[in-house]
Design brief:
Layout (H helix, E strand, L loop, with lengths): L13 H8 L3 H10 L8 E5 L5 H9 L4 E6 L2 H10 L5 E5 L11 E7 L7 H14 E12 L22 H11 L1 E9 L2 E8 L2
Parallel strand pairs: 1-2, 1-4, 2-3, 4-5
Antiparallel strand pairs: 5-7, 6-7
Helix pairs in contact: 2-3, 5-6
């Protein structure tokens, strides 16, 4: 997508840009947060925190939770620090390919970040996420996907930086990592996948 193809975001315009590029942006974010409600989360990991949109919604669902967020852009995290309660978050500059923060976490979330990884890197990340989760923990990912019907591909993508895969492939990789995974929400070329660590 044009917006996501930019390596250096303008944090001040990021949210409005996302809403123009991804018409169902708020629905996706709401679906990600809603998919975490069934888990009693004390520690949450947010992969690709950006300006804190997902983190804020998840923290609102889990009143007593502490959230660790990672993003490769320090500028974006500066915006997130202004938006999120300082006593409930730790924000770290890091890429998804880097070692993840030390677990365990009851919930791991990611919105519109994992599609930047190629297929092998996605599968490898899913395995690392599984190892961070406590028994019964949940990984919720909301992202752009390759839809079954090509006419549903409405989110602009940049072939060099945006590397979405199908829901079917990602469910398989999640299963290979040890998860019980399913689709929680889907609209066009956006989907929210829920993956539970088998106790």
């Amino acid at each position: 997508m044009r917006a996501m193809a930019q390596f250096h975001w303008d944090p001040a315009t990021y949210r409005s840009l996302m809403r123009s590029e991804v018409p169902a942006y708020d629905e996706l974010q709401d679906a990600v947060a809603a998919a975490t409600k069934e888990v009693n989360a004390r520690r949450v990991l947010d992969l690709g925190t950006g300006t804190g949109e997902t983190a804020g919604r998840v923290l609102a669902v889990h009143d007593g939770a502490f959230l660790v967020g990672v993003d490769e852009s320090d500028e974006m995290l500066t915006m997130a620090r202004q938006a999120l309660p300082a006593s409930r978050v730790e924000l770290l500059v890091s890429r998804l390919q880097d070692p993840l923060p030390t677990g365990p976490f009851e919930v791991v979330v990611s919105a519109l970040a994992v599609h930047h990884l190629d297929a092998p890197a996605k599968a490898e990340l899913f395995g690392r996420i599984y190892s961070l989760l406590s028994d019964g923990g949940r990984f919720v990912m909301g992202d752009v996907v390759v839809p079954e019907n090509p006419e549903d591909a409405v989110t602009p993508v940049d072939g060099g930086y945006d590397l979405p895969d199908s829901v079917k492939d990602q469910l398989r990789w999640l299963g290979d990592a040890g998860f019980d995974a399913a689709v929680a929400w889907q609209q066009g070329d956006l989907a929210v996948l829920v993956a539970d660590r088998r106790a």
